[in-house]
Design brief:
Elements lengths: L1 H4 L5 E2 L16 H8 L5 E6 L2 E2 L1 H10 L2 E5 L6 H4 L11 E4 L6 H10 L2 E5 L2 E4 L1 H11 E3 L4 E4 L5 E9 L5 E7 L5 E4 L3 E8 L4 E12 L2 E8 L2
Parallel strand pairs: 1-2, 2-4, 7-14
Antiparallel strand pairs: 2-3, 5-6, 6-7, 8-10, 9-10, 10-13, 11-12, 11-14, 14-15
């Protein structure tokens, strides 16, 4: 393969584009051959508004790079209604060490990417977690008050210092059940005072087809 001989970064585009065609959304023998010969390096998990969940599992299981692209064939304004909140071209967030082509290529080869489409994120757990931790910060409690049931509640400010959007649902502990973190925003959340930590699923951040990123906040 010429591209492989030229040391190209090769990824499989929109594997689920035509799922009704037999074999179009399956790990076929020729793909296995490419993979075994190190001639397949990533898969387009998100294509425009299409989210190919099975492809995310392939990337995780086979160590391939998660990709997201817009695949625009028309004018951007025809495909993306930017008057709506959180609508933008789908893209790959590359965790490069610096802003050079060489560093970007190194990060792609190492699989340090997250696919981003509107409100959704998809990637390997380590990468999605690092991205979340870089964006979201919980400040120490600055206020306590008993609720109407006589339970002492601590109040915390949670900050989202990014252009990303996060939806959180409580999975462990006692506190705010659902949190929506809008881009570049902060808000107050509450948690019972006698806890060390509290955990949430980030329900718009996928680390497998059936698994969200789970995050814990230290409350002490």
């Amino acid at each position: 393969m010429k591209a492989h001989e030229q040391d190209a970064f090769i990824f499989w585009n929109h594997p689920g584009w035509q799922p009704n065609i037999e074999g179009s959304y399956e790990w076929l023998p020729f793909l296995e051959d490419l993979y075994k010969n190190n001639a397949l390096h990533g898969i387009e998990v998100i294509n425009g508004f299409g989210f190919h969940l099975k492809a995310l599992d392939w990337c995780i299981d086979k160590g391939l790079t998660v990709m997201g692209t817009s695949d625009i064939h028309n004018l951007i304004g025809h495909d993306y209604d930017k008057s709506k909140d959180y609508v933008h071209r789908s893209m790959t967030l590359v965790m490069a060490k610096d802003r050079t082509p060489e560093s970007i290529r190194e990060a792609l080869k190492a699989g340090r990417t997250v696919a981003w489409a509107s409100k959704y994120l998809a990637g390997k757990e380590e990468n999605v977690r690092n991205l979340f931790n870089a964006c979201v910060k919980l400040l120490p409690s600055h206020f306590s008050q008993e609720n109407r049931n006589g339970i002492l509640m601590n109040y915390y400010e949670i900050q989202n210092n990014s252009d990303l959007y996060f939806e959180l649902e409580l999975t462990s502990g006692k506190g705010s059940r659902k949190i929506t973190l809008y881009p570049m925003s902060s808000q107050l959340i509450s948690a019972e005072a006698d806890q060390q930590s509290i955990s949430y699923d980030v329900t718009n951040a996928y680390i497998r087809s059936d698994k969200y990123l789970n995050v814990s906040f230290n409350l002490k």
